[in-house]
Amino acid sequence: MNIATPVTIYRKDYVAPGFWVDTVEMGFDLHPQRTHVATRITMRRNHDSAEKDLVLFGEDIKLLQLRMNGVNLKKSAYSLNKERLVISNAPDQVTLEIETAIAADKNTTMSGLYVSNGNFFTQCEAEGFRKITYFPDRPDVMASYTVMLRGDKKLYPVLLSNGNLIEQGDLDDGRHYAKWEDPFKKPSYLFALVAGKLVCQEEKYKLKSGRQVLLQVWVEEGNLDKTQHAMDSLKNSIRWDEERFGLELDLDRFMIVATSDFNMGAMENKGLNIFNTKYVLANSRVATDTDYAGIESVVGHEYFHNWTGNRVTCRDWFQLSLKEGLTVFRDQEFSGDLVGNETGRAVKRIEDVRVLRQLQFPEDAGPMAHPVRPDSFVEINNFYTVTVYEKGSEVVRMYYTLLGHEGFRKGMDLYFQRHDGHAVTCDDFRTAMADANGRDLKQFERWYSQAGTPHVKAHASYDANAKTYTLNLSQSCPKTAGQAKKLPFHIPVAVGLIDAEGNDIPLQLQGESAIATTKILELKEAQQSFVFINIDREVTPSILRNFSAPVILEYDYSDEQLAHLLAHDSDPFCRWEAGQRLAMRRSLNLVSAVQKGEALSLDDLFIQALRKTLNDQHLDPAFRELVLTLPSEVMIAEEMAIADPHSIHTARQFVRTTLAQHLKADLLQAYQDNLTPGKYSPDAQSAGKRALKNCALAYLVEWPDAATYALAHTQYQEAENMTDRIAALSAMLHCSSALDKAHSKTRKQVLAHFYKEFESEALVIDKWFTLQATAPTTDVEQVRALMQHKAFSMSNPNRARSLIFAFCNANPARFHAADGSGYALWSECVIALNKLNPQVAARLSRSMDRWTKYPKANQALMKAALQKVAATKKLSKDVLEVVTKALAA
């Protein structure tokens, strides 16, 4: 087998650009088959650069004309290949005039300029701008832009670009124009253009300074009734950034545009954010509580990028987490603050940690493991990862934990003071945090440069005579690709001690005078001991409060200690974590029992611990739902040296069924207590009650009883919001009894009804596909059948994700079929998507990068599927990088 060797780009090879760009003027004559782009760029030599040639990047575009300082350049004056245009011996001051042509309607990659449902959109991050014109397309080249858009007025009545609208009018032949100016320098990846038939909701908004701005949410006709939540989220984001960080919107208007064809969730283009419809459109009929929360978070995230990403951007793509990790932290804090109470913040924190553990920890343990600031890549699109985003946000949160609220704000203020308008590095951010607080954070740099998830081992000893409690901590980090030896990290470990009555006791470290109920211990060595004094009674340690660092904690808790923490810990994260540890311990034991053919059982301590939590009316319903939600099959697999998806599924379903049997009366009571009659509201309190009610319903249908199945069916029929409707349908499809034939007719009727009811709502039909893709009854042949459904399209990323990705990533017992049929489907879909959209194909490729974690028989079949993809002709470097690293594992 002949596999091409991908070209690797290294961070150490960074060279500053040979030329800086001051201004960019662009004119677009929009036509789907042939858009004409005229660009004028003023440039000046960077005498500090080792790069002497003038280098421009371009892909999949036709060069029509090239002029330098008013003179047409002959082909002998420059070199041109598929990726770049190089002019040697250019003068120090250059004005380039470039004309290019683009076939936007043929662009299925959705990178650069493309057409979706008759409308024009752009996606330029990371390197899409080079599919529009030849340009030094790199994030450290920042310039001011003026853009003229021209197009048919009937076909494209709306013409949008970055910044402020400074002129518009009609042209001959039924065309019109709009001229936009962005007064702030930006890199080319933040350029945006939208043209088409769109309508908008708009509001005037008064900033804290008194200045009024125009806010707009643009959508296709028929979706205007689904924009209010996005608009409210935008206003809340603006207000929060003013109050929390003193950062004001700097443009006269801010626009959000929604499209159903989009590779990402959203894009923060300066003043013109382009969003996947999934993160804009919502009303109670079509959107769930989760959708509402997702819209709030993503709208906040993209708006916050206006400062952390746009005003201060990254020097090179290796520094991607500089903007993404920081902005994820900001959007998490925003969502937590918006809830307005500590319990709500804690629920949000637990949800974020759950995502990190389910997605990022496995990435850290696999062949695509990389530091938060990668050292190399083949295709930058492959590094928009949970490591860069979610782990990156945890790194930022550790600054917050170490420096405190005021200290972190001081660091942010200094960061903007020093670097506004510049392209900088992760080290620049760290230095600002250190300098603003007079702290030595040199060792903290290892969080950026070392891959892998650190393990923190803890053991404790209590000396009753001396009244001291000693906590011994040690750290290690497994080797990852290219990094065998890891140096100690700087790890903040938040600790509390709880007595037999469940009370936090005051803590004082030996040699310190400060007393608190939670102490931040700074673990910086391979091993350290921390001694607490004046401890006059036996205690249980509460370690890693609020998940103070993205590590795996190893502490030999007894079941009784965990039950005690679950019942009493004042830190909601550690309280939830105690329940998860109890559940994981039993899940792993049950998996082993399944594999050995032994009888399965669940102990009373665990059952009663969950019963007590379920019935504790002092606890927020949203928190109780989190405790009642068992570790996922994916997370159980991560705890095993060799993952056995079928045994894991059997064991987990046994736990669910057993809990349903023992807690039936309690679950029914919780269901009744958490009904939310009246008009739907997505507020945190109502959403929490629905979450617990629907969690109870999902357990109840595990008990094979016609009455409980009827309860789910009735909820589906009577639901007045999508949250309750989809939860009822999910319960009917995903319960253990779904494997029986008793209710198959009802399930088919409900699925058919759901499709007919929402056939015109694309985002809801995505849910319909996902529910079926993840059901335990769904095998490969049923997925293939769904791929033939009239509503399925491989070319739409949302639809591909809703069915194929969902089956491969969220239905492990069926995907890992013993005959390898799941792997065959995967390879066919990756190859098909590679031709259409390499970015989406590469994402699907990641479903198999942990192939060495499965039994030998599965490994052989998975390896063959990976080799089949790797040997494909014209394989994109996006996919090639993933499968090459996977096969090398």
TrEMBL record:
Gene Ontology terms, MF aspect: alanyl aminopeptidase activity; metallopeptidase activity; zinc ion binding
Entry's EC annotation: 3.4.11.2
Keywords: Aminopeptidase, Hydrolase, Metal-binding, Metalloprotease, Protease, Zinc
Domain Peptidase M1 membrane alanine aminopeptidase: 230-447
Reactions the enzyme catalyzes: Release of an N-terminal amino acid, Xaa-|-Yaa- from a peptide, amide or arylamide. Xaa is preferably Ala, but may be most amino acids including Pro (slow action). When a terminal hydrophobic residue is followed by a prolyl residue, the two may be released as an intact Xaa-Pro dipeptide
Span of domain Aminopeptidase N-like N-terminal: 33-190
Keyword Transmembrane: no
UniProt cofactor(s): Zn(2+)
Domain Peptidase M1 alanyl aminopeptidase C-terminal, chain residue ranges per copy: 559-888
Family matches, as Pfam families: DUF3458, DUF3458_C, Peptidase_M1, Peptidase_M1_N
The keyword Hydrolase is annotated on this UniProt entry: yes
Listed GO biological process terms: proteolysis
Major enzyme class: hydrolase
Family membership noted in the UniProt record: Belongs to the peptidase M1 family.
Known function: Aminopeptidase N is involved in the degradation of intracellular peptides generated by protein breakdown during normal growth as well as in response to nutrient starvation.
Protein name: Aminopeptidase N
Species: Undibacterium baiyunense
Lineage: Bacteria, Pseudomonadati, Pseudomonadota, Betaproteobacteria, Burkholderiales
